[in-house]
Please model this.
Amino acid sequence: MPIFYRGAGINTYWYLNNPAESGFTARTPESTLTAARMMHHISRGTANTPFISLTRSYGVARDYAVSNSTVIPTLNNPAYVYEIEVPDPLPDEITILDPVKEIAKILLPPAMGPPYQHDGSQEFLLGVVDPRNMGHFLVQQAMQPPSNGGTPRPPNLTLELETLVRALRDAELLAYGRIPANCVQNRFDVY
Model:
């Protein structure tokens, strides 16, 4: 049975509402599953989607719990990481989606545009992975061949590329549907 994790920062919804009692539900479970909603959920942090973000990485869940807390977590006031174990086969009310595979299905062929590839330096992806600390790589000018008098501009960053990079960064999977309370196996205190 696969094990997933989900962080809950202090004073966030899943910190205040115990999923071990109610299960996990998306904010708008009645919304239609679309690639656009998936990309906005992952890359823009849009919460009004039919998805529940999960990760395979305890470390990623811990980082989210700590960084999304309204106060600094401490031993006496910790944030939480939930451990979720889903049965195999999955219950009918839930589907686990791999956003990398889902987005790859909608990418255009390489000769058609716009491409999901960027045209920045090798460091450009560092800015996508960690915009808070390495955002300067996102705004560096895209290099142009010496004979080209092109207008200086930052590199291209498509929604598709941003989604793919962030999904890989966070070892993110998306639950579509309700995660029953009996799948929540543990709650770890983190600070």
Summary: The two ends are 28 Å apart (CA to CA). The chain has a mean pLDDT of 93.
